[in-house]
Amino acid sequence: DIVMTQSPDSLAVSLGERATINCKSSQSILYSSTNKNYLAWYQQKPGQPPKLLIYWASTRESGVPDRFSGSGSGTDFTLTISSLQAEDVAVYYCQQYYTTLYSFGQGTKLEIK
Amino acid sequence: QVQLVQSGTEVRKPGSSVKVSCKASGGTFNSYTINWVRQTPEQGLEWMGRSVPIFERSFYAPKFQGRVTITADESTRTAYMELTGLRSDDTAIYYCAKGGAASGTWFDAWGQGTLVTVSS
Hints:
The structure holds 2 protein chains of 2 kinds. Chain A is an all-beta fold.
C-alpha cells in the first residue's frame, strides 16, 4: 500500500502571503510509460465534501484560481497558494491514484495568521 | 457537469447493516466510475471501493472486502454502498465520488456526504 504523508499538519499564514503544503508518498507515483505523476490535491471546507483542485500533480481543475499550483515528481510534491485569501481557509489533502488502492494524506489545516 | 446526491443520515446498531444511495445527474452514467470514500477524525479519508458500470463490476479495498458491496443501477443512475457487520468505528461520513473510466483516477465530483452513526 502507498502511504501518503503531509506536512505540516497545520499552518497559519497571513493574508496575501504564500502558503506551502507538502506531500510525500512512500513509493514513487511517477508512471514511467506516461511520465505522469499520479497525484491529486483537494480542498475541504467545514461541512462540505472535498473539492478537486489539481490532478497529474500540476494540472489545475477548471475553475480553480491560478493562485493554486502544484509541483513535484516521484515521491515529493507541493501545493502552493501564492497569495492567501480568506476563502482559502480549509483542510487540504493529497491523493495518489498510481495504484487502484487509492490513498490520501492525513490533511493539512490552513488558517489565517 | 455530473452532480451526485446522496441519501440521508442513518443511525444503526452494532452488528446491523446500512445501505447508502448516490444518484447521479449529468454526464453518461457508464462512462465513469462511482467510488465510495469515508471520512473519520481518526482515519481521515479512506477509499472503500468503486463500481465500474460499463463492466458491471465492483472493486474493493482489502480492509472492507467481505463487508462492503457496491452496486450501480444504470436505469436509475444510482449507485449503492452497503456495509454489513457495523461496528462503532464505522461511524463516519460516507461520500460517493465520481472518478474517470480509467483505473487510476482522481475524483472530480462528490456527493454531499451521508453521516452514518453506529451506536447501541
